[in-house]
Structures are given as structure tokens and as C-alpha cells.
Write a structure and sequence with these properties.
Elements (H helix, E strand, L loop, with lengths): L8 H11 L52 H24 L1
Length: 96
Amino acid sequence: MVILSGYNDAVVEAYVKNNTNLGADSRHFVGHCKMAPLCEGGVVDGCLRVHGTENCFVVDNSVCPVIPDINTTASAQMIGFRGSDIIERVLRKRRN
């Protein structure tokens, strides 16, 4: 948890208003669970597994550390296909 001190409500509200946009526009939200080493602020490893967990995977565009230079639908599909292969491999390994 991050506790902000020294900021009044108006400052926080202005920051949120100016730095978030939940409406439909040209922004594509990626990187909230970026794939990177934990020491670099990453949330998932190269196998899409959440750092420090055994059974928790993130399989969507939130693992992209930057906005892809293509339509984000294509990257979401690619991550989904690859993620399903990874999870299937993990499940098969457990059965054996």
C-alpha cells in the first residue's frame, strides 16, 4: 500500500483526472502487469506467471511493458495463444 502524505484531496483528484481515461479514445491500456524481472518492476516472468506464485498467470495485454506498434488485438491474441500453451504445459507436468 502506498500512503501519500502532503497532498490534499484536490491535488489527488486533479492527478487522477489528468492521468486516467476510462472513456473510449485512442489509448490502449497495457503494462499494468508488465513482463519483466521483479527488480525492474515486473509483475510476471517470461512464462506469464506472477512473480512469487505457482498457479497465477496473467494472459492479456497487461503483460506488455509498452504499447505494441500494431493493433492491440493482434498482440492480445498472440499472448492468449502462447499463454494457453504455457498453462497446458504446466498442467501436464503436474499430472506426471
